[in-house]
Amino acid sequence: MPKQIGFAVVGLGMGRHHCKAIQAAPGARLVAICDLDEERLRPSAAEYGCRAYATLGELLADAEVEVVNIATPSGTHAALGSRCAAAGKHLIVEKPADITPRRIDELLAAVRRHGVKAAGIFQSRLDPLNIRIRQAIQQGRLGVLIGVHGHLPWYRAQSYYEGRHGCWKGTWAMDGGGSLMNQGVHTVDLLQWLAGPVASAMGAFGVFGHRIEAEDQSAGLLRFANGALGTLYTTTCCYPGFNQRLTLYGTKGTIIKEEGSLHSWKLQDDPECREEQELLALYGAGRKASGAADPMAVSFDGHTQIVLDMIGAIAEDREPLITLKSAKHAVEIINAIYLSGRTGREVKLGGPAGRPKAKAKPAAPKIAAKTSPRKKARPATKAKEPAARKAKRR
Ligand SMILES: NC(=O)c1ccc[n+]([C@@H]2O[C@H](COP(=O)([O-])OP(=O)(O)OC[C@H]3O[C@@H](n4cnc5c(N)ncnc54)[C@H](O)[C@@H]3O)[C@@H](O)[C@H]2O)c1
Fold first, then answer.
1. Where are the alpha helices (H) located in the chain, listed in sequence order?
2. Which residues surround ligand 1 with Cβ inside 6 Å?
């Protein structure tokens, strides 16, 4: 029997999906799990039949652990990942890779220094429908791409942001934002993976329907490097939660997706819509469970593919399909929208180490940074930001 690769999971919220994904992947063995919360650790160890560690240090001393899946709060990923890399463990890091491009660069440096493999989790990139859409764009079948739009009208109750495992969500320090960074990062990554890099961004955001620090509604305007314009909308306020919608307009056609399903495939080179019918039969309505109302409703199939790909990457000594480096641009775009919301300026991407830079002059047309007529809503320009980031901008 070929050697099995030993995996471990740190963080047992979404991490339980990772445990199932590892157990479903031929060639992978779930060796151990780790969580600071005993009430999550012990029952999960019993359920998955693996070793349980209360600290990352103990887990890293386990020689049978070769790959560590990191599913802790987003603002801890780079620090924990760097420790794993230093211990010679390969990494699979939940989205976002961390909450700032600088921290992701630090993690990438640790990965390079210690010669380990590192994959990000953007499971949507492995979806056959998304791959088909990307191929159509790259083959020029939409003509010149002109409009790239992502809409995420999701819902999370106030309780989602409360309690021991909720209180880090919607904070700047640990979540790096709210609906845009936490829920929206998949949509942002998909837009840039389909349409190419974003050159600049404008945005507005605020708190509208929850008692949280960062934001629960954001709107962004994107200029893609290829000239296309894009819009992005994220929220966790839209009761009861509606499907993510992606729209891609080109000079020769339009593709519309709703959550995991195809809605329209209207291309001039498919005038009788034969291809559209074929694709609707494969990927039409109701194809996938949605995270619109419940984060745990998403399937773990994508995670299993990422685990299998990591096994392949180790065996073949190649990069994983979703490199950590490629997972950075979504975080750059999101931070650019936040910076624009604070400054009221268009923010250029692609500065030193990919850090966003506010343009010297306000761009025209300028998006108003006002957030809501409601009294409670905090204007984006006054939204709190981490002290460290404030200091950096001075
Ligand atoms: N890919 C997806 O579709 C998807 C979906 C949901 C969440 N996520 C991501 O998964 C990550 C976790 O989110 P969640 O909703 O599961 O959060 P959560 O708070 O429910 O779970 C995180 C767990 O990590 C543990 N933890 C924190 N610090 C630790 C440390 N130093 N060592 C060991 N354990 C530690 C906590 O005790 C907690 O049990 C986030 O980065 C989030 O963005 C991804």
1. 15-23, 38-48, 56-60, 77-86, 101-114, 128-138, 172-175, 185-195, 274-283, 301-316, 328-343, 387-393
2. 10-14, 34-37, 40, 56, 71-74, 76, 80, 94-95, 121, 165, 182, 295, 298
